Prior knowledge:
145 residues; 7 helices
Amino acid sequence: KNFNARIVIAAHPSSSYETRHDYFGGRRVIKGKTIELIKKAKFIIAHSSFSTNFAVMFKKPIIFVTTDQLNNSHLGKLNHKLAEMLGKKSTNLDKQFNIDWEFELKVSEEKYLEYKNKYIKKPDTPEFPFWQVAADHFKQIDIGE
Length: 145
């Protein structure tokens, strides 16, 4: 409400929310369009997802959330580590919390670039999708006839 934004759920590709009607309180759930949704978003609310990479590539602010149950799983550590690497905090929705929106909606260019170079792509490589880089490479190969 504060940001005049609507929440859209980018469902995991293997999810099956069709059998659990209204699982997200009437919010729209879309599967298979995560990249497009992130690209259009004002900011991202995420937990322990490798789709975080897309938010980093599009330089979108990320608000990391967790729960007591998530913290007690192997994904809890991943969630906290992702938040830390990007200069963020992880907010536990099961506890009393107060989000510092000004802080959370800022993107640390330095942290995002460091994360991108360490986990997404090598520095000084083309800013194209892998398939474009591969296609360009194969075009240059002389197969002889």
